[in-house]
Amino acid sequence: MKEPDFKTVAIVGFGLMGGSMALALLEQRPHLAVIGVDRDAAARANADRRGIDTKADLGAVEAADIVVLATPVRSILEQLPAVGERAKEGALIIDLGSTKRDIVHEMDKLPQRVHPIGGHPMCGKELAGFQAAEAGLYRDTVFVLTPLARTTQQTVDRAKAFVGLLGARPIILDADAHDRAVAAVSHLPFTLAATLVNLTTEMSGSESTMFSLAAGGFRDTSRLAASDTRMMLDTLLTNRDNVADMLRAFSRELNRLADSVAAGDERALELFLDRAGKRRREMFK
Amino acid sequence: MKEPDFKTVAIVGFGLMGGSMALALLEQRPHLAVIGVDRDAAARANADRRGIDTKADLGAVEAADIVVLATPVRSILEQLPAVGERAKEGALIIDLGSTKRDIVHEMDKLPQRVHPIGGHPMCGKELAGFQAAEAGLYRDTVFVLTPLARTTQQTVDRAKAFVGLLGARPIILDADAHDRAVAAVSHLPFTLAATLVNLTTEMSGSESTMFSLAAGGFRDTSRLAASDTRMMLDTLLTNRDNVADMLRAFSRELNRLADSVAAGDERALELFLDRAGKRRREMFK
């Protein structure tokens, strides 16, 4: 890979995602200047111990060729105007937010001297904070880029090269299509997991043995419920129409399935289970 | 552990669960006579290659001190009368079926000379057949025992010792409580996974990129959809009331959640996500 055309990267929000990005960048390009920006002193202390330069103040983005916003979605929306004021001529502004419509809308208001593009890496884990960061988090995963109308091909190419440096595979998508897709394959699974945990907990009230019967199936299906609350709250609240549509469609499907089960409709059930089984096995070989 | 008071074990149905049990027993007690009974020639051939004695005919249970029924629930219900006719005086009859009410009801009709008890190991995986069997499948997992009114303490103790030999932890539960609990922690997660796969597949019709955005969260939440169709069909059809109740309760919860999301009710959403996150993190530390 040719040397990147940037020397300084500022990452705003130095938790799991931002911290892992810094570690990945420094592993690939040890001489890159990576600055972690976080208001939280504990987050900064953790990063300092790993030898990463950190700042408390957003002013640190002034020096950066690339500014990465790695906070929850609504924080990104709040930070964008200040980043636009401070970022230098020609800087690439990218974010890692889980929804993209509101963000690209806000990015469109940035001064013309900076070059914004939306970003969403399809990776993560159920541990928050820099202490959970790892250089390999982005490796071999998909990183969605959502260009704005004003985004030039040159900016797209720079963003792709940056994503490639992390070991991720860039996919170009418009913000609307992105938000619809993640409502189905990410926000829906998350809300199902959270609902599964809350509903079974309510029901187990008098039956303490219920959870001693929970095996690997329950563990996997409920895993996403342990995701970072603040991040997921921002995600759902900035994708309300798509998420509500998915939840209602799922709810209708479950009622239909309940009818088939209650009626003992073997043929309908068999078709349903067979279709899901075949599809799932072919999805993840 | 003292030597078991049984010399011959017949396992009827020699797939993943029955085969893994045979491997576990022979690993612990190489001199035990373990007979795998399966009508399917391919299943027998796989077991024969691993040096396990197999028979095609149910008559093979005549020699057994312990008869284990390891087929799907409705096959167990069909096989029980014939097993009762053929099993010898004093034989322990146990099964591995995923639901227990219908089975203990049918077991109650067995002749008094045999000793039935229901069983359900809380383990498995999304691969079926003897070729997926492994000696460690039962190790450190919960094995539910559901005694009948006629089951003596001596029979319970024998069943516990047998379960202990597999490395599993026995839990005594009545069949009604078992079927209610597994509807919540096992059958519900399974139906959620299957519905997630089917609904997102339908929706992705025109948007082929949707699944390229599916990451680890989707993979884990949908994993159970790949379970064995025949086994799950029997399971749902013999637990219809409990499963339909759970699906309807879940469907109502999702509608409530959709309302909170659509209305942007931040306080309600935050409470919901926070409760689920805390509970999930404390469940699986």
Approximately how much beta-strand content do the residues of chain A carry? Answer: 5-15%
Count of β-strands of chain A: 8
Low-confidence stretches of chain A: none
Which class best fits the helix and strand makeup of chain A?
alpha/beta
Strand arrangement, major sheet of chain A: 3-2-1-4-5-6-7-8
Pair with the most extensive interface?
Answer: A-B, 93 and 92 residues
Rg of chain A: 21 Å
Helical run tally of chain A: 10
Task: Summarize the structure in words.
Two copies of one chain form a homodimer. The first copy, chain A, is 51% helix and 13% strand. Chain A is built from ten helices and eight strands. Chain A starts with 7 loop residues before the first strand and ends with a helix. With 285 residues, the first copy, chain A, is of the alpha/beta class. In chain A, helix 2 links the parallel strand 2 and strand 3 (53-55). The first copy, chain A, has an eight-stranded mixed beta sheet with strand order 3-2-1-4-5-6-7-8, with helices on both faces. The radius of gyration of chain A is 21 Å and the shape is elongated. At the A-B interface, helix 6, helix 7, helix 8, helix 9 and helix 10 of A face helix 6, helix 7, helix 8, helix 9 and helix 10 of B.
